[in-house]
């Protein structure tokens, strides 16, 4: 029963308050530590970088899981209410619905105002790609893709690992995902971030497919499920990542829009070009999918509680 209350409270905190400021956000702390540690690894050769990156990944997981575990343990020893509140607050730090919604809609509003310079600046909160030369459709596409991938990274996966391993599981996932987002790509971090990227692919294998299914379910509630399903099945393998294509393809199909990252992939090639309004549609679909996932997680815990009492 405590798990049900923790999930409900964490979601309520997110809906009511959104994300805390960076000075209080554990994920922002993760980013600072990764940035500091990563500088040392880049001085090594390829093999040394891979070993350093592997140790760095495991260290980052332990650095945040162990203190969180102790905090939760002593909070529960104090009393049940303290344990629930502390667990919910720490769990909330691993996922974000309102933060993703707010960032995406802000980009959409700036695009509507045709303020491309500020749009490109604000896109840093959503994507890591270079946005300096992107046109309006490509900026809108990047924002929609970020919302689609966020279905997995920002919600489905943290709740999935919370159900399996509790708050430490969700925090461990978030540490790996943050590492992957910062150093898990080609270029100067090719070798340093390789282990983090591999581990992130493994951890997201099931959640990414569940995220795609949640978007298809959300699209079905909007009477667009068939196209979302067909596009996901047909085009999910167009990304280099074995996971990202599921949610992006489902989103592209549901919105009947073309999503493109130049020189990397195109989804729903025959669809209309994405514009500012497309971002709002993506956010609505994300929130619908998120609602379905949260309700399914709560239902799973209710059924488990019923059969264990």
Which features does this protein show?
mainly alpha; two-stranded antiparallel ribbon; 11 helices; 75% helix; globular
Task: Please characterize this protein's 3D structure.
With 309 residues, the chain is an all-alpha fold. It has one domain. Helix content is 75%, strand content 2%. It is built from eleven helices and two strands. β1 and β2 form a beta hairpin. α1 packs antiparallel against α11. The chain starts with a helix and ends with a helix.
Radius of gyration: 19 Å
Biggest β-sheet: strands ordered side by side in the sheet: 1-2
Kindly state the mean pLDDT as a whole number?
93
What is the molecular shape? globular
Which residues sit in consecutive blocks of at least 5 with pLDDT less than 50?
A: none
